[in-house]
Design brief:
16 strands, 14 helices, single chain, Aminopeptidase, five-stranded antiparallel β-sheet, alpha+beta, Alpha-Beta Plaits, four-stranded antiparallel β-sheet
Length: about 475
Amino acid sequence: MTDVTSAKSSRRPHHWRRDLIELAALFTAVVVADTIAKTVVRGADGPYMLVFSAIALIATAAFHTWWARRHSHAPPHGHPGGSGPTPLPAATDAATGKAAAVDAPSRETASHETGPVETTLWRVRSTVRDTPGSLAALCTALAHQSVDILTLQTHPLAEGTVDEFLLRAPARLQASELTREIAAAGGTHTWIERADAHDLVDTPTRLLGLATRTALDAAELPLALRQLLGRCSIHSLPAVSLTGRPTGETAPVEGHLEDTVMRLRDPNGGVITIERPYLPFTPTEFARARALVELDARLGPRIPRSQDVLTLPEGNEITVRRADQRDLVAARAMHDRCSARTLDLRYHGPVGDADRYLDHLLSPRYGRTLAVQTASGRLVALGHLLWDGDETEVALMVEDDWQRRGIGSELLGRLVAMAVEAGCESVYAVTQSSNTGMVAAMRALNLPLDYQIEERTLVITARLSSASARSRLPLGER
């Protein structure tokens, strides 16, 4: 609705009765004028009649003018005093019904006087009784503290309902005060943590994004589950150990949920165990996690087939690509060409069953693997990013004849970039203290490093808080 009224809508309705009356009045006036004229001409009182007629004409004209002015100032149709409903003025406020043109200056003044209010985002989960008005009481208590509810999810339980909120609260409101207000409104088992702008995505959109990532890459399933369920530990336990013995790890087809632990059947065999000690899982979260695992099972083995061709400083070209269990034969052939020293630095000792161990490392269920192959197609290096519960490990192995050419640094930089993209807070490498090549590659990341040495074993942890702002350098400039 606009403030400008069109010419068509402003035109008054045309009444045929008024035209008929005006025509009759004109006809009567002509008859009266003719009669007066004949009287003036023929009678002795003609001059007096003419004067009286003039006075009557002036009086009639004055009355008509007064009447017209009175009706032209009457309230228009639809306003008080008129007929029909009374519409709101143009551009009204949807909440109050006041004209925006009148209300806006007062809001600007208030904003100018008080200034912007600093706010904080919170994720809050609380259990309320499953009775009418329980959620309303909780929302009212939050409103009294000037807290804005951005999103709300409900997780029905056998007794009560878990409500999960994303809140925008004044910065002055501390977590303890917010928890106290929720408790006073009837909320129990309240859990609260800081949120950020990434949490502003609505739940259906976030779930579709996680499903898409899982569909494109089998290695994304553990990451998708972690982002779906928050801070949690995810362990993929195979049905058969690396030594070939059954682990005894099984789970029913429909999965199993018990308070803070859920167990889901791994499509590749074994069990996916998810633990979140600080917060029990709800049946809703269990159903969502099970749906992602079922999607992964239906799609089968898959990895992105993108690859990059790079040129080494001496001029040789290499290709860096993703690898999986279909590269097992080529990976075993590379192992056979490596020296005992190279294998010892990588595995900290002899490998009894290389095929089974490589099959585990190449599985997308346990992480991501990058392979480097020459122009002839021979595999000469492997880099692994392994999901280890809530931590992430990086591991490298480069064939002897291709070492000290920058391949290890290139693989490590790409693995760290993957870890940053996956939202990992840190990565660690386990090697021998004499492995100067791995130490140099970790230092070349230009990230904060922590070192732990126990006997001959060295654990180097890189914190990735600043890695997202770091641009990847070309090969040879690391």
